[in-house]
Amino acid sequence: MKSVDSMTDAPDQKLLMEHSVPGRRGVRLPPLDVPEQPLPESSLLRDNLPLPELSQPEVVRYFTRLSQLNYSVDTHFYPLGSCTMKYNPKVNDQVASLPGMASIHPLAPEESSQGALKLMHRLQDYLSDISGMAATSLATMAGAQGELSGVLMIRAYHLERGQPQRRTMLIPDSAHGTNPASAAMGGFQVTSIPSDSHGNMDLTALKEVVNDDLAGIMLTVPSTLGLFENDIVEICDVVHRAGGLVYGDGANMNALLGQAKLGELGFDVMHINLHKTFSTPHGGGGPGSGPVCAGEWLAPYLPGPIVEDNGQEYQLTMPAKSIGKVSAFHGNFGVLVRAYAYIRALGGEGLRQVSEDAVLNANYLMAKLKDAYDLSYDRLCMHEVVLSASRQKKQGVRGLDIAKRLLDYGFHAPTMYFPLIVDEALMIEPTEAESKETLDAFIEAMLSIANEVAEDPDIVSHAPHTTPVSRLDEVRAARQPDLRWQPGR
Amino acid sequence: MYPDNRRYSREHEWVLIESDGRALVGITDYAQEQLGDVVFVELPEAGTQLDQSQKMGEVESVKAVSDLFTPLTGEVAEVNQALVDHPELINDDPHDKGWMVRLASVDATQLDSLLSASEYESFLAELG
Amino acid sequence: MAESPTFSPYTPNTPADREEMLRAIGVSSIQDLFGDIPQTFRTPSLSIPPPLSEMELQRELEALAAENHRAVQGPCFLGAGAYRQFIPAVVQAIASRGEFLTSYTPYQPEVSQGTLKAIYEFQTMTCQLFDMEVANAGMYDGATSLAEGALMACRVTRRYKVAYLDTLSPSYLQVLTTYTAAQDVQPYPVSADSAATLEPDTACLVVQHPNFFGYLEDLADLEQAARRAGALLVVSTDPIAAGMIRPPGSYGADIVTAEGQPLGIPMSFGGPYVGLFTCKSEYLRQLPGRIAGRTVDSQGQPAYVLTLQTREQHIRRERATSNICTAEALIGLMATVYLATLGKEGLREVAELCYHKAHYAASIIQDIPGYSLPLNGTFFREFVVQCPRPPAEINATLLKQGILGGLDVSDMIPNGVLLCVTEMNTRDDIDALAAALRELGR
């Protein structure tokens, strides 16, 4: 069941500072080639720099062995719902590393970085087209920053129209935590809207809460349940008629590429996660990029800078009524290059095929697993399926345990306990980049675990058994925080 | 199983009126079980004036945060300092050593609006 | 060799695979799976150019890259928040390993010990660099880290004004303004003099050190000023400077942030970078971002896990310390590898190389007729030169000679240019720059 041989070696228990030996060096620097200059007074200088001392081979081995303790897309099926863990094409990394891309200073004269600006301008256009919006800003460095920008744009829009009382943001109870967190950072009060028994937003509940204080609504489409809102047009309509605006969380765009444009459905502004839908690597928690796409009436408020084509050259400019800068420079260019390359490799038809295969694969998993596991909503899903382990809970095994047992089978677990409104939720998103053989192996593992729950529940509830470390004492980690190496420990 | 000499709120707090009229407040065994292992508790400062049902603090487990509400109007006289280093007392002994807040100048008429032990147990049974 | 027009090497599904799966699901075509989308909006057309083969893609990107050659070749004297510094080969070798590059946020710690232990090392080294007690796993960049630091100070002190020393980077100020505007937090500028008496309700004093112009500020004095006002001291610093300059933590700073890009990260036209964020341990519960902690597993083995997650958005939602989710983990890893490789002696040496070369450059440039150094104080690796002509003209000429000149700051200092010298600039580079400036000054 172990799928990576190196995992039989026990992990190195020492830290870099514990490997450190005085006098070892990891790299040589050239000698000073200018005359030595007078130093500042000693009170301004530091007397001790407590960093480790290691030779280069030690550094390489330490980090290489560390890497071997990870599951990753390159090594394992990684069906994390709403994360879109698809294959990260290597050519994208290659072109992003070209010196002409990787070594440009962000403040270099624009005449000397036209290639970079052209790439950004084209990417803006592609994302505007895909989202059905008028304009795009690439300045935001993650989805959450895209969300914050979006709500700040909505705020600016209402303030300019003399509507400062519009301080309420509506958010479905199934939403990702960044949505209410971003709304709060944007100075809004959050009102939660429940979902109905079909997994759609409760339209009646929505109509009851819209009033003159409404700034807008934040919607994920398809929702975090992997379901397309049947009443999406009416939801947008209700909000618009009440004077509010509709923000789209584009985390689940993998289901909609080339199938529908949020701008056409009635959304006013949205963000896209390049590190999800557009294949840029997750890196263990970033870098990401969360471009913001806006309809014409919101485009002037986009965060800046954006790239404009004045007919002769490409330039960085701030939109006329921009909410401001959200990064010191222009966004995560290295991530933008990868997304651009991905879009160029696929073309429009290729993007459409991504969503077709993503939705097909998820429905295939659902069809094969719905007998052994409870489905929260018995309808076709989109690119992800939410199972509930409530049946297994009655037999004493929880969703968490099933997730941990999957690790023994050589699969990364799906997303657990999200969305919050589903009991013992397991959110599974295969993506389009997995073969049917992999999907079948995963199905087999899930069915095998369902059997184990019935016949040998302990092996599930005490999983994982074959990973480099077993279940961790998270309570101790929170009660006795140990967040860094300390000397003399 | 829930002591008779106390009153209970629907937010799963218990109140014990002490001999000097002050009120001792904590969370119930049901609450600590729902929370899981408590890792941190945030309590109000001494001297804080609270109205009944006002939020007075937070209890955290590894994966959840719960608000604490005062079951009675009153002034915070002292808080259980032992919980700073030993939040697990709330799990181990929620009705005694895991006490959280001692209130002075309480509005004792509000006790009637709270549940008795048997009423609280029925309430729990309904929650299923 | 005709391929199906929709063949993608990134997607395994063949028509036969699709057929089989459709049968298992019980629908006849893939479009049946999109029935929930109202018909009027289905399958819109896209104006994306036709797909490129990998070879064509390489050619296309190489052509775009080639258009940027003047920004990339030749000596660089431009800093102002992004720096051309030495990147050891080890950094990219480790960062390109698929196990680091293509893994997700480590929510399943049993199979993410690589990422988690690397974060713990990152947190350790960030603290050691700035002499601080606690660090998070990194934020987007130096500017947003500073903005989050100011907001954190507001939460800790329950005050709503943020004082900033007027030598703060303009772009950092813009980001701070964006982040504080919607929360009714008011930033206001102070000078070195007016900092002595901060306004009441000031949550923190924000200082960039070395400042935007490259000069050190009087942190001892400014710390006193903050204390007098009951405010926190928030310092935005530079990690290379930390190799030789006394760290902000040693002055009692409450929150210290920095841009991590100089630590082995390519300039990459502005990102991705990583924001370093540290604070005193008493403020731990208000710290934004992810934190990795050390604990044990069920067998008693030491192991690492994301901890104190109740501060974060996925649990606390609208009451979270920040909305941040995806950050810059891989970039943090690169910085960690850089620091492990350079080490105690190496980082100090890099800092000293920068210092001496920058001071050499300053000394020969100020001897050129028409050029002077208008600012007083101690600088690290950046300094302002007042030129006899507009910097825009000077830089245009330098660019033709293949030299990237400093940042034009003539809107702040008449004919001022902000020059940066790092270990990557040779003596020949510096002498050539001086020669060019001399020519331009005639």
Write the layout of secondary structure elements.
The complex is a heterotrimer of chains A (489), B (128) and C (442).
Chain A: H1 16-19, H2 56-67, H3 90-96, H4 99-102, H5 114-131, E1 135-137, H6 143-160, E2 168-172, H7 178-185, E3 189-193, H8 203-209, E4 214-220, H9 232-241, E5 245-250, H10 262-265, E6 269-272, E7 292-294, E8 306-309, E9 314-317, H11 333-369, E10 374-375, E11 385-388, H12 390-394, H13 399-408, E12 415-416, E13 425-428, H14 436-455, H15 457-461, H16 474-479
Parallel strand pairs in A: 2-3, 2-4, 4-5, 5-6
Antiparallel strand pairs in A: 1-7, 6-7, 8-9, 10-11, 11-13, 12-13
Helix pairs in contact in A: 3-11, 5-11, 6-7, 11-14
Chain B: E1 7-8, E2 13-17, E3 23-27, H1 29-35, E4 38-42, E5 49-50, E6 55-61, E7 65-69, E8 74-79, H2 82-85, H3 89-92, E9 101-104, H4 117-127
Antiparallel strand pairs in B: 1-2, 2-3, 3-9, 4-6, 5-8, 6-7, 8-9
Chain C: H1 15-25, H2 54-66, H3 89-95, H4 98-101, H5 113-130, E1 134-135, H6 142-157, E2 161-165, H7 170-181, E3 186-190, E4 202-208, H8 219-228, E5 232-237, E6 255-259, E7 275-279, E8 292-296, E9 302-306, H9 313-316, H10 329-366, E10 382-386, H11 391-400, E11 407-408, E12 416-420, H12 427-440
Parallel strand pairs in C: 2-3, 2-4, 4-5, 5-6
Antiparallel strand pairs in C: 1-7, 6-7, 8-9, 10-12, 11-12
Helix pairs in contact in C: 3-10, 5-10, 6-7, 10-12
